[in-house]
Write a structure and sequence with these properties.
The complex is a heterodimer of chains A (373) and B (127). In chain A, 22% of the residues lie in helices and 32% in strands. In chain A, the strands form four sheets. A six-stranded mixed beta sheet of chain A has the order 10-11-12-9-3-13, sandwiched between helices. Chain A has a six-stranded antiparallel barrel with strand order 14-17-16-15-18-19. In chain A, α2 packs across α8. Chain B has 127 residues and is an alpha+beta fold. The longest helix of chain B is centred in the last third of the chain and has 8 residues. Chain B is globular, with a radius of gyration of 13 Å. The chains are: A alpha+beta (373), B alpha+beta (127). Chains A and B meet through α8 of A and β4 and β6 of B.
Chain lengths: 373, 127
């Protein structure tokens, strides 16, 4: 299968980006150096092309009911311009995907939602939404707009200041609280359509920042308007890991590593007083408690833990698996996430990580590993 | 992008170089390899006195995003290890041909060097 290209593929090439396949898309992994890009986001501001993320719009008289029944959080809590983090679970409460749901301005009497599935999941989620809509006899339009929009994340302590310089409505943007969003145009965009961008105070780096969903044809001018360090998926991974944020397909995977939100440490996305696919299973899980939990750890010995490495007791008994691991550019220490039985999950517990046959001393540490907003 | 490929040494397809010096054959990785890897954050090397075998892994170099095996360009006994790399693995990025060297080896058979690529041949490979 040929890879999908973000609208800025050529622009990234000219900038000398290294690219990689991610979720079926060819995306920039590194522009200058992961450490340099990482530092830019922690200390000032950086921009990421995340156009590989999906965009699915759900509208119509039953849009809210459909969203409520297919996602774990409570969409009725969203006013226009609000967003929330949620999971999409199967009947067994296993996470199929994690997502951010935005409530867009109403169309007449109808609610409109936009949700962002992970890269490569847009078609499956569109199908899932349509199938359940038809099964339940709900009236809602489900439109996969992944190829109509580019998406950029502007992240770091300087992100909002930078944005205020380039948006047409700085007042509206400066008023945004965390997880709030609004439409605005970007100064200097050349598109004849003057299409608006959906700009949200969200992100996945642990820093303050914004995410911008821009019309595909405006991608280049919007990207250029934000004059700051371009960052690739490499830095995005080290940043999200320092913040303790999970990555779909890596920290959970419906096929290879099926997990519930409670095991993943994102039980806060589950609102059991709403009705959704997987709710009953999750209620049981919550009552019974989980056997394993995703934990953070930091290596004491020299070495780097990688996805798939064994986690063992100090005696060498295998108790779990590393799901994410890297050298933290901020801490200059090797950190990671992995699943262990709950009795080993307390901060400070001594464990070992088997790094290519060598047991490395490590300690459980509760994420985030660095201070985040 | 062009990469340095000094012609005073030989290269292996897997991107290691070998240079004859007074203290044996020094081994490191090429400018192309360090660039491909990105930020090097960890290097695992054998100890002095251990043997390495041509074509076989003698250690690993880890960048933030990946783990890569290092393959010995020549067989022999390790006579020196660049311990500076344990505290400053970034030397591999900054100066792969000099400060970023990895091992020195007393070769079993110096003629093995002749089997490696010349700088010109290696440049063609990475072009």
């Amino acid at each position: 299968m040929s890879l999908q290209m973000p609208p800025l593929r050529g622009v990234h090439d000219e900038r000398g980006a290294k690219v990689t396949e991610f979720g079926g898309w060819e995306m920039p992994v590194e522009f200058d150096s992961i450490q340099e890009e990482h530092r830019a986001v922690r200390e000032s501001v950086g921009k990421f092309d995340v156009s590989h993320m999906g965009e699915i719009e759900v509208s119509g008289p039953d849009a809210r009911a459909l969203m409520q029944r297919l996602t774990s959080n409570d969409v009725t809590a969203l006013d226009v311009g609000d967003s929330q983090y949620a999971t999409i679970t199967d009947e067994g409460g296993v996470i199929i995907d994690d997502t951010v749901i935005y409530r867009l301005p109403d169309e007449g009497d109808d609610h409109v939602f936009l949700f962002i599935p992970n890269a490569g999941n847009d078609e499956a989620m569109t199908e899932r939404w349509r199938t359940h809509r038809d099964k339940w006899g709900l009236e809602a339009a489900v439109e996969n707009q992944t190829h109509e929009y580019a998406m950029f994340a502007i992240q770091g302590p300087g992100a909002r200041e930078l944005a205020l310089d380039v948006v047409a409505d700085p007042d509206r943007v400066s008023d945004l609280s965390r997880f709030e969003a609004t439409y605005t145009t970007i100064e200097g965009t050349e598109s004849e359509s003057e299409s608006e961008c959906w700009i949200a105070r969200t992100g996945y780096t642990g820093e303050d920042g914004l995410e911008v969903i821009a019309p595909w044809d405006d991608a280049e001018s919007v990207w250029s308007a934000f004059d700051c360090q371009p960052c690739g998926l490499g830095a995005r991974d080290t940043l999200r890991l320092e913040a303790g944020f999970v990555l779909a397909g890596q920290d959970f995977d419906r096929e290879t590593n099926p997990r519930t939100p409670y095991e993943c440490g994102i039980g806060f996305t589950v609102k059991l007083d709403t009705e959704f696919v997987g709710r009953d299973a999750l209620e049981r899980t919550k009552e019974e408690g989980v056997e394993e939990k995703l934990v953070g750890f930091r290596l004491v010995d020299r070495g780097i833990a990688r996805h798939g490495y064994d986690i063992t007791t100090t005696d060498g008994d295998v108790i779990g698996t590393v799901t994410s691991g890297t050298m933290s550019p901020t801490l200059e220490a090797a950190i990671g996430l992995g699943y262990v039985p709950v009795e080993y999950a307390d901060a400070g517990t001594k464990i070992r990580v088997d790094v290519r046959g060598r047991p490395k001393k490590a300690k459980i540490e509760t994420p985030p590993f660095v201070d985040t907003v | 992008m062009s990469f340095d490929t000094p012609d005073d040494r030989r290269y292996q397809e897997s991107h290691e170089w070998a240079l004859e010096t007074d203290d044996g054959v020094r081994i490191g990785i090429s400018d192309f390899a360090q660039d491909e890897l990105g930020d090097v954050v960890f290097v695992e090397l054998p100890n002095e006195g251990e043997d390495v075998t041509a074509g076989e892994s003698f250690g690993v170099v880890e960048s933030i995003k990946a783990v890569s095996d290092l393959y010995a360009p020549i067989s022999g006994t390790v006579t020196a290890v660049n311990e500076d790399l344990f505290d400053a693995p970034e030397l591999v990025n900054e100066d792969p041909f000099d400060e970023g060297w990895m091992l020195a080896v007393d070769p079993d058979d110096e003629s093995e060097l002749e089997d490696l690529l010349t700088a010109e041949e290696y440049e063609e490979q990475v072009a």
